[in-house]
Amino acid sequence: MTSVLYDAPGPRAKRRNVLFSVVFFVLLALLLWWVWQTMDDKGQLEWSLWKPFTTSEAWTTYLLPGLADTLKAAALSMVIALPLGAVLGIARMSDHRWVRIPAGAVVEFFRAIPVLLLMLFANEFYVRSTGIPSDERPLYAVVTGLVLYNASVLAEIVRAGILSLPKGQSEAAMAVGLRKSQTMSSILLPQAVTAMLPAIVSQLVVIVKDTALGGVMLGFTELLNTRSTLAANYANVIPSFIVVAVIFIVLNFILTTFASWLERRLRRSKRSTGAVLGADKVDDVNAAEVGGTYGTGAGGSI
Amino acid sequence: MFDFLSDYDDPTLLGAFWVTVQLTVLSAIGSLIWGTMLAAMRVSPVPLMRGFGTAYVNIVRNIPLTVIIVFTSLGLANIFGVTMGAPDDFEAKAFRLAVLGLVAYTAAFVCEAIRSGINTVPVGQAEAARAIGLSFSQILRLVVLPQAFRSVIGPLANVLIALTKNTTVAAAIGVAEAALLMKEMIENEAQTLLIGAIFAFGFVVLTLPTGLLLGWLSKRLAVKR
């Protein structure tokens, strides 16, 4: 494979590349050897610590219920945040100043604040002001925090989706006599949602990752939290971390792959007129940038 | 109204935010260095390095930061004995481990941002650089990276703002930064709303100037093509 940066290697370059490969391989092997050796010393490689994962007990008692809670919180947040985000995004583009400015303020405010603060605040709010039973409160707090943050991120994605549509779309709608609300609901929004689908799916990765915050700060029984109970039972700190990390990686990798498949598919179909907003859009809006939109986006979501 | 603030002297409100700022700055410097190295690996002619860079980015990006931070404390420190040069000082150890976790996580995003910047440099420039006999590392150092950095100030600003917000996760391993102090205050004091507003304001103060400054800088320094 050749790249922009280097040519097809000649004899000297080939020798040099082999040398670099060997040096890098040795460094990597040393690191892995150290990791292996330390794990061996601390007894983390004992088969008895890994064995629980081959039996059904560890999965049915700890990991699967944890995963179920992670997915439940993520799904709930998405389902609530999506319509809320659509409303906020549309409100931000309203012709009326008294709608546009408050909506803009809400979106910018919640994007600028760490999700963890929102979760902590929501948790304390529920303790003081509502009668939600204490075993359900963490779920409520986590979902509230995620909804507030992600609704405002989704609002920006929706807005970008609508702005990416050609102006002729709404002009044509006006020409045939549709009202503003009709134009939005039957012309602009459906197209915008299609264009935004990949970005929306990528946002799910952010939500899934953020549920772990509730596990460690609020006692929400998601995957990271059930991991610690599991590790306390079997004394398998490193194995349990590896298994949980792999579950998260697989889960998010599936979502990312689905998003980029969707993006390719939407780009290919000739029917849509608007642009397709990919995962990099998510990265841009997640960061709550305050000084206008930036150019080239980086892939992925933070 | 603000009387309760004087009850908190270790850390004080400003002290906690100062820890947040320190976490952000140190992690930003660390992840910029490690992220640039990863990006250089990902575009290098050595297949093994390319493979390592790709694997690192795809794995780390998909693990929740919370899992990484908790792992630095329970896994790295307790099992592997990585104490970052502070085996007995609990506070310093937690702080340094948090920086390590944040760097490991954020570098993946920095790497992707820089790589997208490298892709914006026209092919002809690298070809011209090769034609006058520059080596790969010279092309990268003298021709490509300087332009790439100028075009990714915007995306890097996004990463920096996200990092500022992500430092709150360090509260999970007991680093006395803003989120941990807010948790403590909000549980002890009656003015939930006021405390929420104070900390929200603090983060707006931290992120707003960063966004504005770097946004302005990215427009000013953008390579005109």
Automatic annotation (TrEMBL), chain A:
One of its GO terms (biological process) is amino acid transport. Residues 67-259 form the ABC transmembrane type-1 domain. One of its GO terms (molecular function) is transmembrane transporter activity. One of its GO terms (cellular component) is ATP-binding cassette (ABC) transporter complex. It comes from the Bacteria. It is found in: Cell membrane. Keywords: Cell membrane, Membrane, Transmembrane, Transmembrane helix, Transport. The chain crosses the membrane at residues 18-36, 73-91, 103-122, 142-166, 187-208, 237-262. The keyword Membrane applies. Its main location: membrane. It is a multi-pass membrane protein. NCBIfam families: HEQRo_perm_3TM. PANTHER family: AMINO ACID ABC TRANSPORTER PERMEASE, MEMBRANE COMPONENT OF AMINO ACID ABC TRANSPORTER. Belongs to the binding-protein-dependent transport system permease family. This is Amino acid ABC transporter permease. It comes from Streptomyces hawaiiensis.
Automatic annotation (TrEMBL), chain B:
It holds the Pfam family BPD_transp_1. The keyword GTP-binding does not apply. GO terms for cellular component: ATP-binding cassette (ABC) transporter complex. GO terms for biological process: amino acid transport. Residues 17-214 form the ABC transmembrane type-1 domain. It is found in: Cell membrane. Gene3D superfamilies: MetI-like. CDD domains: TM_PBP2. The keyword Transport applies. Keywords: Amino-acid transport, Cell membrane, Membrane, Transmembrane, Transmembrane helix, Transport. GO terms for molecular function: transmembrane transporter activity. The chain crosses the membrane at residues 15-41, 62-82, 94-114, 159-181, 193-217. It is a multi-pass membrane protein. PANTHER family: AMINO-ACID ABC TRANSPORTER PERMEASE PROTEIN YHDX-RELATED, MEMBRANE COMPONENT OF AMINO ACID ABC TRANSPORTER. Belongs to the binding-protein-dependent transport system permease family. HisMQ subfamily. This is Glutamate ABC transporter permease. It comes from Streptomyces hawaiiensis.
